[in-house]
Design goal:
Length: 139
């Protein structure tokens, strides 16, 4: 095991997943990739004008989420790569697993989208079924 992917939304569940990934990385001398994926929603104001979130706003939100996830987390001794991606979270995560030859995904059971996840099926559940590598879901 050389590459561990940790998708994050800065929720406590994601932070626990990162801490678990760091333990695995230290034990197996692996690299951790911390990734934030933001779907680019189209929003409308009260006069039905359409607005699209800019790449700069996605980058800014991504940096905030990655920094929040890493707050007070000891990453010493572990190579850590940070990525900010745009798109459907499940599709982006599954593509990243393939493109980067990820050996293990460690992710939280639920994040900030818990209500939506209950209605649509969670990201972690869909990654679990679609991934071509092992997936560890933390509580």
């Amino acid at each position: 095991m050389k590459k561990i992917l940790v998708p994050t939304d800065a929720s406590e569940s994601s932070r626990r997943a990162l801490k678990t990934a760091l333990e695995f990385a230290r034990k197996f001398d692996a690299e951790v990739e911390l990734m934030f994926v933001m779907h680019q929603p189209i929003t409308y104001d009260s006069s039905l004008n359409m607005y699209i979130i800019s790449p700069e706003q996605i980058e800014q939100e991504g940096k905030f989420v990655l920094d929040a996830t890493l707050t007070k987390v000891d990453t010493s001794g572990v190579p850590l790569k940070k990525k900010i991606m745009e798109g459907n979270a499940v599709k982006v995560i599954l593509k990243e697993i393939q493109d980067e030859d990820i050996d293990l995904v460690i992710m939280g059971r639920c994040g900030y989208g818990a209500i939506v996840d209950c209605l649509l099926g969670s990201v972690s559940q869909r990654v679990l079924y679609g991934a071509k590598c092992s997936v560890l879901i933390t509580k």
